[in-house]
Amino acid sequence: MKRMITLDTEKMPRAWYNALVDLPKPLEPPLNPATGKPLGPQDLEPLFPPALIEQEMSQEPWIAIPLEVLEVYALWRPTPLYRARGLERALNTPARIYYKYEGASPAGSHKPNTAVAQAYYNAISGIRRLTTETGAGQWGSALSFATRFFGLECTVYMVRVSYDQKPYRRSMMEVWGGTVHPSPSDRTQTGRSVLEKDPSNPGSLGLAISEAVEDAVTHEDTHYSLGSVLNHVLLHQTVIGLEAKEQLAQVGEYPDVVIGCCGGGSNLGGIALPFLPDKASGKEVRLVAVEPKACPTLTKGAFTYDFGDMARMTPLLKMYTLGHSFMPPSIHAGGLRYHGDSPIISLLVREGVMEATAYYQREVFQAGILFARSEGFIPAPETNHAIKAAIDEAVKAREEGKEKVVLFNFSGHGLLDLSAYDAYFKGDLQDYELADEEIKRALAELEKLAVR
Amino acid sequence: MKRMITLDTEKMPRAWYNALVDLPKPLEPPLNPATGKPLGPQDLEPLFPPALIEQEMSQEPWIAIPLEVLEVYALWRPTPLYRARGLERALNTPARIYYKYEGASPAGSHKPNTAVAQAYYNAISGIRRLTTETGAGQWGSALSFATRFFGLECTVYMVRVSYDQKPYRRSMMEVWGGTVHPSPSDRTQTGRSVLEKDPSNPGSLGLAISEAVEDAVTHEDTHYSLGSVLNHVLLHQTVIGLEAKEQLAQVGEYPDVVIGCCGGGSNLGGIALPFLPDKASGKEVRLVAVEPKACPTLTKGAFTYDFGDMARMTPLLKMYTLGHSFMPPSIHAGGLRYHGDSPIISLLVREGVMEATAYYQREVFQAGILFARSEGFIPAPETNHAIKAAIDEAVKAREEGKEKVVLFNFSGHGLLDLSAYDAYFKGDLQDYELADEEIKRALAELEKLAVR
Predict the structure, then answer these.
(1) Looking at beta carbons, which residues of chain B come within 8 Å of A380?
(2) How far is B347 from chain A (nearest CA, A)?
(3) Contact A175/B74, CB-based, under 8 Å?
(4) Chain A contacts of B172, Cβ < 8 Å?
(5) Which residue from A12, A247, A412, B236 has the least number of CB within 10 angstroms?
(6) Which of B1, B171, B176 lies at the smallest CB-CB distance from A419?
(7) Distance (Å) from the alpha carbon of B300 to chain A's nearest alpha carbon
(8) What is the mean predicted confidence (pLDDT) over B369-381?
């Protein structure tokens, strides 16, 4: 009985799909925070290489994947597509559930799909070093892995509290040759000024971003790299959905619903965006974003211009946001704790092309454990959100007595998140739901921004 | 450029290869420790189901893999075979290096290949629960994973010091529904008597085996399960080598040398045994076992009858051994810290059909880091031993200016062993080598055994 649907290396996609050409209306431009005017390419040059700036705004429907990138992808791509027969049986559902297994990458998640591309384009533009920030370490480890293949150095600013408490992802980055500094560090003006006031400051993602950006703009040969939100990041992730479509076609299937968890939006974009042209030409396929009720950006946020970071250093993006000063409760799905969302995903939700739904922390862990016990793979806490939504679709199919094809993205495995499962079993996990009042308070900050 | 060589589910082996029919001479029989007489099938019945006892002594060259087992294998098998192009480039070698990636299983190692088969045969013989012991947790997690698919309970006795210090593999077992007890426990006579004398006893693998065996023999519906050493375990692992041969044939290759790390011998047997018939019919292929210098069973041990466990409860096996009371230094490759070896592997080394070599701890970590930085995947400390031997073969090929095809088994990934890499980077790893005198002392205990 076939469970794993492989795809031969020769059939790996040769181009990324650019969703910008199929949006229901054009994205509103990012704005320069100082002038309030639309950003020009030159505004991004201190941070990104020309190819990525071009991709950020491109109107080409397909962008060829460089051979050098394909060669590194070939270490784990094409990833398997699985028919979740064990889960189907456990649910006694007439639905056929498929999941794209991005846990197969050496870093254990989808993140290397863009890390490899970003490392390549920086390397060919003469850059010698990349900087980035990382919380729990998922993105920092993906970039440490990727830079390795193009002779780049990688400097990661890791939030101090994670640096101290989660040494394993730090070791992972070091195995791949990355250099990891706890943030706040004494390597940047920002870090030093924080340390001066509070030498034992635990750090934050916003602060780590500021340090990584400062390090990049103050060094000639250095650029900054971002793991989600931006258009070029989602572009690189479309290999996920392109492969999945090909694999489904091999077994004569087409999904009724496509599901991904959503923090900044990159894994969701990866699986869902390649279905946009079909949808535009009248095909019925639902696209579903799943987020935590603890950080309900798409389901409860405002659609407006906001900063990408807490420190107000980034351009203003038009997106769903809870406000850049919003600090989400400390749930285990760290990758979904982002106040904003990808502008592409935000627009799709705003225009009704994509749905959004939110779950509590405990019910998604329960879903993840059912998955592990029926399919074998232990999912990351983020991935559990997509699993919960897929299960709900399958249960609904059973209740309605309908066949249905469900596709979701298994964005990463949870082998470095086992402490979260431990906490679940001990009964230590809490269900957070933001009160409307809290959200109002979080959004109030946005009122003060000049642009809307 | 092709790196990953996949194999379609339809081409998964349908039968295990039984090496007992191709050994250079028959294995000497296991002996009953009480009588010193060869063991009969009835001696094993309290521990194992009929099918496994039959497989332990079978003279059939091929044993059909039950459909129910194939269906669970299909979750991650066939595993990919990789051409190690990055490593080849890093070594500037004319050798072509291939590795079979057993890290693809949900448990992250080759162990589920036999765990699934053992769970199945126990389930169909009416057993309701399996017991086993585990040190760091590799085998306990594989069995917890496997029992899940056949409605069996799984009770794991985990050495207390690991239970306390390595909570992540314990969480992993619990995610899959296994019940984990720190050993010594109050659940067995053996455990209670130890705790009475020393309530804070840290436990040992020998003690955990005794508890798991006692639990099995004192409960009607319960059997015991072993993760290495025995013939039926190596039998189940031959899917590794059978798939690898098929994948190599797809790209027109045949190995000059086949390499595996060796603790009890199961992953090495898995990759190497399927080459025995070719070797017997005159084909030139070297088979190489790699062990740590800290536990040099094959390279420095005696070939004699010995107990499988420290507590002298198991049958006597004819094998290479350092003596059942030998306590190897605490290296990070916990899976290679076994005083004995599989009787099949031992006989092959004894008869010159297989070579054996040993390395220091630090040089194998260095090899593993080179691998991670050129191939991406982070290997388990055990796997690093096979990698070091493969690198040495490739370097020799360069020095001799010769082409050569090297195949090794990537037995498992190291994502749950990152603390060992951390220790390596900090300079905390030691190179142990046993002095001949220590080995003499360890072997002296064997002299007292009646049988030889």
Answers:
(1) none
(2) 36
(3) no
(4) 378, 415, 418
(5) A12
(6) B171
(7) 32
(8) 97
Please give the helix or strand (H or E) that residue A259 lies within, else none.
Answer: strand A257-261
CB-CB under 8 Å, B4 with A76? yes
B4 contact residues in A (CB cutoff 8 A): 9, 74-76
Among B10, B72, B377, the residue with its CB nearest the CB of A106 is: B377
**Predicted local confidence at residue A2, as pLDDT:** 83
Nearest CA in chain A to B6: A8
- Asked if residue A319 belongs to a domain, the reply is yes
Contact B278, B420 (CB under 8 A): no
In this predicted structure, the answer to whether residue B321 has a pLDDT above a threshold of 70 is yes
* pLDDT value at residue A329: 83
pLDDT of residue B52: 98
Cβ of B75 and A421 within 8 Å?
A: no
ipTM computed for the complex: 0.94
Express each pLDDT in A209-263 by its tens digit.
889 999 999 999 999 999 999 999 999 999 999 999 999 999 999 999 999 999 9
CA B249 to chain centre: 26
- Does residue B130 sit within a domain? no
* CA atoms B143, B145, B146, B150: torsion sign: positive
A195 in Cβ contact with A184 (< 8 Å)? yes
Q: What's the CA gap between A65 and A77, in Å, rounded?
A: 13
Identify the residue with better confidence: B396 or A34: B396
- Between CA A178 and CA B93 the distance in angstroms is 26
* pLDDT category of residue A450 using cuts at 50, 70 and 90: low
CA-CA distance, B82 to B11, in Å (whole number)?
17
User: How does pLDDT run across B339-374, given as a tens digit for each residue?
Assistant: 999 999 999 999 999 999 999 999 999 999 999 999
Rg (CA), chain B: 21
pLDDT number for residue B447: 75
pLDDT digits (tens, 9 = 90+) for B176-223: 999 999 999 999 999 999 999 999 998 888 889 889 999 999 999 999
Q: Considering only CA atoms, which of A77, A10, A175 is closest in space to residue B377? A: A175
Average pLDDT over residues B411-437: 92
In whole angstroms, how far apart are CA A193 and each of A159, A179, A185, A207? 16, 22, 10, 11
- What is the DSSP code (8-state) at residue A38? B
> Chain A: nearest CA to B372, how far in angstroms?
6
Place of tokens 């402490």: A419
pLDDT mean over B104-124: 98
Residue A95 pLDDT class (50, 70, 90 cuts): very high
What's residue B86's pLDDT?
A: 96
Is A176 inside any structural domain? Answer: no
* Structural domain span for residue A314: 66-108+232-448
How many CB pairs (< 8 A) connect A and B? Answer: 127
Looking at the partner chain, which of A9, A416, A421 has a beta carbon nearest the beta carbon of B415?
A416
pLDDT tens for each residue of A347-373: 999 999 999 999 999 999 999 999 999
Taking the CA of residue B83 and the nearest CA in chain A, the distance in Å comes to 9
Q: What confidence tier does A451 reach under pLDDT thresholds 50, 70, 90? A: low
Establish if B194 belongs to a structural domain: no
Domain count of the fold of chain A: 1
Nearest beta carbon to residue A369 from set B1, B82, B175: B175
Name chain B contacts of A144, Cβ cutoff 8 Å: none
CATH at B395: 3.40.50.1100
